[in-house]
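re: ur question from yesterday

yeah so i grabbed the chain u mentioned. its 121 aa long if i counted rite. heres the sequnce exactly as i have it in my notes:
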Amino acid sequence: MQQFAFEKLTAWKLSRRFVSRIYKVTSMFPEDEKYGLVSQLRRASISISSNLAEGSSRLSPVDQVRFYQYAYSSLMEVINQLILSADMSFISIEILNELRKDGSEISNVINGLVKSNRSKK
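ran it thru and got these structure tokens back, copy pasting raw so excuse formatting
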């Protein structure tokens, strides 16, 4: 079966795993957060991998960088929402720290993609 370019990206692979973790963690949130933080966290985490996939399909490095930056911004949105979730005791500090560690790893790889593509101009 054909493998698309984005499927080869380390950042995409990490973000895919991150989505699964976000879904697992948010399944334990209070029911009244279903349309609040749960929805926001899930959509933002999916947006990371989606923007990486879309960016990899762009022909110009400038366009690729733009989508990789969108992915990074979505990652920062997720981290912020996780911090708020910990503030409201929806997740423990330990879970927050684990997810922040995952986010930091994804962040570093996305930043590498941005730097690599900026040098192609």
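noticed a couple things. The chain has one domain: 33-118. also The radius of gyration is 15 Å.
anyway ttyl
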